[in-house]
Design brief:
The chain is α/β, with parallel strands linked by helices and about 250 residues long. It has one domain: Spore Coat Polysaccharide Biosynthesis Protein SpsA, Chain A (Alpha-Beta Complex). Helix content is about 40%, strand content about 15%. The strands form 2 sheets. The protein has a 7-stranded mixed sheet, sandwiched between helices. The protein has a two-stranded antiparallel sheet with strand order 2-3. Helix 3 runs antiparallel to helix 5.
Length: about 250
């Protein structure tokens, strides 16, 4: 059976520190939003067969239906807290065998290893492939749909959340897992490229302004070189870096 890889993006506008993170502008003048760059980048990755938005219930999230329609994408609508169910339903809607997961507030995907990891994911017959220990916001996960469904069925409330692969990680002995570590230059706990605070947004806007000619495939290694040459930008997000990494990659 031919495997079908579907990118599922869980979308919602609620946020305690910064409202409407996915629809914040990276380029104010040209109206390029965070989610625009994510979707455009995913569309350049040949192994991704379809992109589906998993939209949270609530009138404040209606904008994502409009975005999906404008970009020719399908979508599902589901529970605000149960992000895992939305990802599962994205996969079911698109007939996926596997789900490619990225977050909706992280504009700069480390896309370089995607094709090779998908090849290995299939060839080695694994349930989940994780790109771990990479800069916060740049990673991705490839998970068999059946493993996500099992996570939802067997997991607890804390697993049916934005920590969508927590059940698999805590019960890793029951799954075939391929864990890939990023190049050492991208293992940087002092950096973050996800938007959760106004300072994060300011840094990502600066990065986009410098590299927009390469958009949507903006090189993460080049971003790192740019940040190292501009340490004041690193200082802006430093207060949030340590906390961000504490919630990532939990293993049982």
């Amino acid at each position: 059976m031919k495997r079908r890889l579907v990118a599922a993006i869980a979308c919602r506008n609620q946020g305690a520190r910064l409202y409407g993170k996915p629809v914040q502008n990276l380029d104010v003048e040209h109206g390029v939003r965070i989610i625009d760059n994510i979707i455009s980048c995913l569309k350049t990755i040949e192994c991704i067969d379809e992109i589906v938005l998993g939209i949270s219930e609530g009138v404040e999230n209606e904008v994502f239906k409009t975005i999906a329609d404008q970009k020719g994408l399908r979508y599902v609508v589901g529970d605000q807290i149960d992000v895992l169910s939305r990802l599962v339903n994205c996969g079911l809607l698109a007939g996926a065998t596997d789900v490619f997961r990225v977050t909706s507030e992280s504009p700069f995907l480390y896309f370089d290893p995607v094709e090779e990891l998908w090849r290995r994911h299939q060839a080695e017959g694994v349930d989940a492939s994780f790109l771990d220990d990479v800069i916060d916001g740049c990673g991705f996960e490839i998970i068999a749909l059946k493993a996500l469904q099992e996570s939802h069925d067997k997991g607890e409330k804390r697993h049916r959340s934005e920590l969508c692969t927590l059940y698999i990680r805590e019960n890793h002995q029951h799954y075939r897992i391929l864990k890939v570590v990023a190049p050492s230059a991208l293992v940087r706990k002092d950096l973050r490229l996800t938007v959760d605070n106004p300072e994060d947004l300011a840094v990502c806007r600066t990065i986009f302004s410098v590299f927009k000619d390469s958009a949507p495939r903006i090189s993460v290694p080049e971003i790192v070189k740019f940040l190292d040459a501009n340490p004041k930008l690193i200082e802006m997000t430093a207060p949030f870096a340590e906390a961000g990494y504490t919630t990532m990659y939990r293993w049982g």
